[in-house]
Amino acid sequence: MSDAERPSAIGQALLAISDQWTLLILQRAFLLHTRRFADWRDQLGMSESVLANRLKELVAGELLRPEPYREAGRARTEYLLTERAIELWPMLVEIWSWERRWVPRRHSLPELVHETCGSRTDVELGCASCGRAPVTARDTETVRAAATFAQVTVPRHHRRTVRGEAERDPLSYLPDTFELLGDRWSTVILAAAFLGMRRFADFQSELGVAPSVLSNRLRRFTELGVLAVEEPGARPRYRLTGKGLDFFGIFAFVVEWAQAWYTGPPNTDLRVTHRACGQPFRPCLRCRSCGRAISRTEVHFVVPEVLPERRLPLAGTA
Ligand SMILES: [Zn+2]
Ligand SMILES: [Zn+2]
């Protein structure tokens, strides 16, 4: 692919993960160490063709690694998270935390245990460059190069969305995140809002998004309480609500991961700076109970109905 056709690092990352089924497949691999076709199919109620298609994409995108095994004398394949995929763990924990803060639901969410201090806890966003926490969107400054969002939404085959049953499943704690991160246009529009875009015409000209797609996403974001309309009328202005601004933590982990694992053409990076230290903002998660930075191998989720006594660390490495 030539530079002109290649999306930015963030664009490539969104092509790899910005899909509802893909996020659920990865989430099950992290939480339950799922690695076999039939297990994902049964846990998620997915059709075999959609699952086969997503697994193929995840392998091609180097997020899952196929590994042969034998069962009842037959050669079969299981799929393990690659190092690249495992580094998505703080994004998944931050998604859990954001959903817990902002999305009311009928069933309780899994609980996060920090083994270092023994607490059932929550996380807060910190800056790994200077060690300060908490850090919010307002404590940072994001600058993008002109072409950051070019080619992000190259056409792909039809995306099938996840059915509503996921809502009843205590492990499927992503309902609002799906709408923001499970669709590339949505994520890009939200990113543009973080960069200060406010008006319909600005989103449209900056992102090259079709007006119908843009108005559909802006309306949905307003319904979800992520954006609020200021100055309604012919030229409405949109602003991020508290819920929308708080999604910054997830956004920051996506940006960090994208720029660590993908290379875009020159001049397509996004730079997030932590104002307090003046250094690049490197997001990290701190335990709200003990204040220490958490690492993947020191936390696990407890899901009373599903994982009563099991202590599974995040991510299913062999
Ligand atoms: Zn800092
Ligand atoms: Zn702790």
TrEMBL record:
Keyword Kinase attributed: no
Coiled coil: none
The HTH hxlR-type domain, residue ranges: 6-107, 169-266
Keyword Transferase appears in the UniProt entry: no
Gene3D superfamilies: Winged helix-like DNA-binding domain superfamily/Winged helix DNA-binding domain
Pfam families, sorted: HxlR
Keywords (A to Z) from UniProt: DNA-binding, Transcription, Transcription regulation
Highest taxon, organism lineage: Bacteria
Protein name: Winged helix-turn-helix transcriptional regulator
Source organism per UniProt: Nonomuraea mangrovi
Classification lineage: Bacteria, Bacillati, Actinomycetota, Actinomycetes, Streptosporangiales
